[in-house]
């Protein structure tokens, strides 16, 4: 389903030692990078809708993992649902666990897409924007993403070497 909000068996809050977290089986997101028409490395950011948890912040397309999904499958599905990014166009380079709370974890999948495009998304975002990599931290980031960004930035830089 595109345009609306998709519900899977992973949707739901779980209690962890540091408070509730979204995703009964954990969660995953896609850090998608590309090169724009002036040769800059750009990152796809999502301006989260105000009605979602920690809304009106910027983050990556992502969400709850379903019981049958790997982190990569979940991240690609979420990017398709939320930003209209076709999974077939993404080259997955790496995945990194960026948050752990007891048995729950968030995995960031890092991938490259040749053409920095944005398709039709769903209601979970106000907008999507390709942002130069060195400007990401100037946005009002989702706190968990802000905490992970320095290490994720480094990971993308290492992939470019």
From TrEMBL:
Keywords in alphabetical order: Hydrolase
GO-annotated molecular function: hydrolase activity
Domain Nudix hydrolase: 23-154
PROSITE patterns the record matches: NUDIX, NUDIX_BOX
Highest taxon of the lineage: Bacteria
SUPFAM superfamilies for this protein: Nudix
Cofactor: Mg(2+)
Signal peptide: none
A Pfam family that the UniProt record links to this protein: NUDIX
Coiled coil: none
The protein's name: Hydrolase, NUDIX family
């Amino acid at each position: 389903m595109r345009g609306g909000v998709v519900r899977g068996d992973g949707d739901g809050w779980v209690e962890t030692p540091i408070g509730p977290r979204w995703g009964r089986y954990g969660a995953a997101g896609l850090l998608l990078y590309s090169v724009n028409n002036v040769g800059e490395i750009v990152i796809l950011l999502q301006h989260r809708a105000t009605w979602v948890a920690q809304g009106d912040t910027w983050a990556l397309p992502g969400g709850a993992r379903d019981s049958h999904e790997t982190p990569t499958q979940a991240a690609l599905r979420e990017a398709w649902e939320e930003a209209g990014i076709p999974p077939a166009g993404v080259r997955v380079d790496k995945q990194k666990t960026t948050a752990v709370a007891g048995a729950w974890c968030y995995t960031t999948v890092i991938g490259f897409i040749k053409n920095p495009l944005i398709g039709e998304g769903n209601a979970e975002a106000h907008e999507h924007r390709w942002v130069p990599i060195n400007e990401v931290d100037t946005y009002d980031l989702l706190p968990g993403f802000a905490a992970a960004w320095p290490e994720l930035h480094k990971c993308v830089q290492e992939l470019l070497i």
